[in-house]
Specification:
The strands form 2 sheets. Strands 4-3-2-6-5-1-11-12 form an 8-stranded mixed sheet. It is α+β, with helices and mostly antiparallel strands. The two termini are about 30 Å apart. Helix 1 runs antiparallel to helix 2, helix 2 runs antiparallel to helix 3 and helix 7 crosses helix 8. The chain has 8 helices and 12 strands. The structure holds aspartic acid.
Length: about 300
């Protein structure tokens, strides 16, 4: 049988056992387990990597625990500005959106951009117009409100910070997959960073930075301080280390996260990545990263803390 694999993340940062009580740990564990199983179920039935990553990311977007769609963080104006991207490793087709509000599942809109427009990346009002014309579901502001994110904004405003030093639980979501047809795909969705400037766009929707897939090499979804992911062009960097440097997936992903990103400074982060053989790498240089994977070779992991 041909191998297939999926890996997901729910954000990297100061994910420490002392910051999450046992009930919260269980909530995160169950949410990760559900999302990875949803993606895996698609692959198990012979479905595509694109459908698998979309299914997993939609599930995480619908979960208020994560900083994507429903649980998205607030910008400095107290608004949500959502970013997302999806990429097909077979065709190098990609779709991305940024700065949209009210779209229930930004990853679905990103996929529509990929399949139903002549473009790769739509922003703000234009992306919303395209969403409306293409039957994408919208939700009212209340749907996206969570007390935790609102409180984080008040604290961030009070201290003038973007994100919070002591709550570096960024919470972006992403998925990468290899299907039985040998195709790779990646998807990422985020509300960005708490108290970000209106109009700020992170790495998640930038093809090659937070999201990248190429059948020649790997599929990557990143999470962490976007400004640094963008400078490192981290997704494409990992792919290039494999394609032109002959490195295996785990070494390339580890070098990108633990050397290149660290040397750039910033608050760090991590990636999830899968290659053509179904190997999964999930390195991070923060205290923890919400992550899970399931492979046809029998690897099953659901983790959040720094035990990798
Ligand atoms: N990378 C995201 C951003 O900078 C944040 C995160 O991963 O949590 O927008």
């Amino acid at each position: 049988m041909k191998p297939f694999s999926i890996a997901i993340h729910g954000g990297a940062g100061e994910v420490l056992a002392k910051n999450l009580n046992p009930d919260q740990q269980k909530e995160y564990h169950d949410a990760l387990s559900k999302a990875v199983d949803m993606g895996y179920a698609v692959l198990e039935k012979g479905g595509t990597a694109l459908d698998a990553v979309e299914a997993a990311v939609v599930d995480l977007e619908n979960c208020p625990l994560f900083n994507a769609a429903r649980g998205a963080v607030f910008n400095s104006d107290g608004k949500h500005e959502l970013d997302a991207a999806i990429m097909d490793g077979k065709t190098l087709g990609a779709g991305a959106i940024c700065g949209v509000s009210s779209v229930k599942n930004p990853v679905k809109l990103a996929r529509k951009v990929m399949t139903d427009s002549q473009h790769v990346f739509l922003a703000g009002a234009g992306a919303a117009k395209f969403a409306k014309a293409n039957g994408i579901e919208f939700e009212k502001d209340e749907y996206f409100f969570t007390q935790l994110r609102f409180d984080q904004l008040q604290e961030a405003r009070a201290t003038g910070q973007v994100a919070l030093d002591h709550v570096k639980k960024f919470g972006t979501v992403g998925a990468v997959a290899l299907d039985v047809h040998g195709n790779l795909a990646a998807a990422t969705s985020t509300g960005g960073m708490t108290n970000k400037m209106p109009g700020r766009v992170g790495d998640a929707p930038l093809i090659g930075a937070g999201t990248y897939a190429n059948n020649k090499t790997c599929a990557v979804s990143a999470t962490g301080h976007g400004e640094y992911m963008i400078r490192a062009v981290i997704g494409h960097l990992i792919s290039s280390m494999m394609e032109f440097g002959g490195m295996p997936l785990d070494a390339a992903a580890d070098r990108a996260v633990n050397q290149v990103l660290k040397q750039l400074g910033g608050e760090g982060g991590g990636v999830i990545a899968v290659d053509q053989q179904g190997n999964v790498a999930m390195p991070f240089n923060t205290e923890g990263m919400f992550r899970a994977c399931r492979t046809s070779a029998g690897r099953v992991e659901i983790k959040m803390f720094g035990d990798y």
